[in-house]
Amino acid sequence: MHFHRDRGFVHPVPSEITPRAAYAGRRDWLRQVALAAAGTTLGSWAARDALAAAPPVGAPLPGARSTVAGAVTMEKPTSRQDATTYNNFYEFGTDKADPAANAHTLKTRPWTVAIEGEVKKPQTLDLDALMKLAPMEERIYRLRCVEGWSMVIPWVGWSLSNLIKAVEPTGNAKFVQFLTLADRAQMPGLRSSVLEWPYVEALRLDEAMHPLSMLAFGMYGEVLPRQNGAPLRLVVPWKYGFKSGKSIVRIRFLAQQPRTSWELAASSEYGFYSNVNPQVDHPRWSQATERRIGEDGLFARKRPTLMFNGYEPQVGQLYAGMDLKKFF
Ligand code: MTE
Is the pTM of this model over 0.90? Predict the structure, then answer.
């Protein structure tokens, strides 16, 4: 168990967070941006090509503040340090510190995402093309893990509905399945049989179309770190975090509800819906409260968990009339 002691640290608002100088690739990219902005001769074709390519991990990735209802919580964001060192990404190990320690082997460029199944326009999209599909937005979402901890994270990306509309689902499409990368050469955790690989998650089509469902390419104003699911991941803020698959390579539109990795692992513990619900306990622990990462310590109190993680006004109608204890 890891404890996070950052009490007294004043968090800047995410748009003011200065990107870390981290990788040589990022510095090159920044130089190209500067050249292009200065309109120098070198800034013509070479820089334009560099700009056309998806920026590397750690590069700045700004987004305009989202106008989607409920997309920006005023709660204090979790520190970047905590959000990038306390992770679940079993492909890189099951301890919270494993993904940050091991994910450097993940190759995030080039990257493609295959769109298949019940769509009129099946296609394989290159990451560069995908990132340009819609303007980048910054959204500050609560993240509630099924394990009982939570964070507040400023993501950068756009509504998944942009992609869904572009590929035109057929009338048969009722579910959307997300398959994430499973490559033994890059992911040491695949040697373990803790889950069936690849990690597979899915949503009902109307859930996927909800404007709060997001494809994220960045966080804290920068391209996603590998341990957080580079180069793209899902973020569904009203569901437990495991519904938000990391490092997605394939999106399938289906007529039937598919089984997900966590359902296959323990169907009595992890249901298909997995909406955050303080009234439906996990068979082995209560879901009524949560521990906010960064607030640990002697005097930290557990917070009450909110229905649909606080997004009930936005998403409650998706489940009207459903027995949420049965469809957990
Ligand atoms: N995606 C993949 N591919 N593999 C995983 O193990 N863990 C999930 C989810 N997505 C996971 C995954 C869980 S349990 C949570 S809580 C979130 O990622 C954690 O996201 P974070 O580490 O960025 O906070």
Answer: no
